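Forum: Protein Structure Q&A
Topic: Joint prediction for protein chains with partners

I've read a bunch of threads here and the consensus seems to be that you should model interacting components together rather than docking separate models afterwards. I'd like to see that in practice. Below is the full input, 626 residues plus whatever partners are listed. Could one of the regulars post the assembled result?
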Amino acid sequence: MQPELVGPCEWRIRPESFPGMRVPGIVFATEELMERAIEDRAIQQVANVATLPGIVKASFAMPDIHWGYGFPIGGVAAMDPAADGVVSPGGVGFDIACGVRLLRSDLEWQTDVRPKIRELVRALGRRVPRGTGTGGRLKLHGSEIEDVLRDGARYPLGQDIGWEEDVELCEDGGVMASAKPEFVSNRARERGGGQLGSLGAGNHFLEVQVVEEIYDEEAAQTMRLIPGQACVMLHSGSRGLGHQVCTDHLKAVDAVSRKLGTLVPDRQLASVPLGHELADRYLGAMAAAANFARANRHVLAHAVRESFASVFGSSSHDLGMSMVYDVSHNLAKFEEYDVDGRVRKLCVHRKGATRALGPGHPELPSRYRPVGQPVLIPGSMGSGSYVLVGTAEAAEKSMSSTCHGAGRAMSRTQAKKMMSGQRLVAQLEGEGIVVAASQPKLLAEEAPYAYKDVSQVVKACEGAGLSRTVARLRPVGVVKG
Amino acid sequence: MADVGEVPPPFELLEHTADIGLRSRGRTLEELFENAARGLAAILEREAARPGAELLGFEVDLEAADLEGLLVTWMDEVLYLLQERNACLGEVRVGEAGPTRLRGHVEVALCADVVEGTELKAATYHQLAIGEDGNHRWATVFFDV
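Posted by a regular:
Agreed with the consensus. Here's the joint model:
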């Protein structure tokens, strides 16, 4: 299966390349990133997704593509309900609505934050529950879990946690109205009940960052980002609740899909037709889990503001700690696209890919309508992160999608063999990055060398026209599970 | 359990770019599933219960569409018992495994040390397989990290 270069950073896998492909595969990548994707077996996964019923235009993959389970990481697939399209819980993954939130501040790195960075990272480490087996900041009792599943980030806001603009600047206004909490199992509720406001482990993190470079003045101004300013980026998801929602529905979908005789090249791609009762149940439960994820990041952001307020002796309002945006990268959503001259409502799966709406899109908060949707791209620990903005062109090219991160380049076992967690902490400290890790041994799994170069990924996205680069941020403090 | 010959290591970990895989083996299906539980505990570094800690026992009765699906369901159950309770694995016994039902007993207890193993989200159906090789059964399952 040899992808052909068909445009700037755009490769095509012909539908004849693999039996059962209904549409071509389109992979956005530089030559180097494409070579890695081929070695990594991820290209085969792009072809596998192209066999799903009702897929429209192409099976897409973003430049941070790598081997996943079922879908490749970085995979995007839009299904048409009017053409027997399906929904696949594996195309969203276990960490439903895992995503990134960015807070900005009026604090300047050199004069304000640098002298207090150790104290700040310690304060964040104390206030942000993280790692395996930890409870969240907000314990839910009785029917409160129901409220979170229904109201998303609006639930903690109603408890005087966070700011009103936090929900306005969150994707979907912080709540997916399509949520159906009645399809979230008791076990999922049990797992989530104690975890609201917890970071988790693995690649989830919280970083104090400094705006290092601005590439797009207008968009940066709209996002209130300036060089030298301190920001906080956090990456977390729907915790055990989301994992259980996926587990429960994947098992049910697998059973139905086998009964219906739907053949898939990888069982993790099990799917059910949109409109089937089980599809409605999954999408309702998935939206409820997405609401939990948004509430989770909302509560975590509150802990960040409290930490800053305690260290700098001013309220978070006085410190200007407003939100830039919050966006998920594991989700399935109904969105409208012009396909072959006709507007169609499609179920767009994004597995490790970020929605990137262009300027003027009606779903954007009014602040961002002139410039497009902010896209938050965390790099590996120790390397830079990026803020991008969606383009109008991406609607046609990638179903308004772009990358979600650097993308792994090395297995966790291999990464741990190369360097111990303690040595990695020392190395990062040597580079001026203060680290608070509750499980230092695990830190090496997330070492910068285990990831691709995020700058190359972001450049490929821009080269292909999927998003524009707005700002680069570098980490100065890392809090990890 | 009848002795039906020598077997290679009861489990080994498999490489994956983002996630992690487990290959387990056993002379019988029951032993295969028991060893898969031990392999999962090894990935999580939840193998060492605190000496003298109280053991909590759980009777497990699971169903799935087929044997491979049963392995995923079993892995998710053991993962739930260990990770959500922040516990380590004690005894694990599988009395009946397959083709669509598993009955067993799992004991968990407080861990001897602070756990620094990989946190897993769930078992997946990706490259899921169960087979036979000479005198032993083998199974492959990948987990989302």
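Chain B has one domain: 12-132+140-144.
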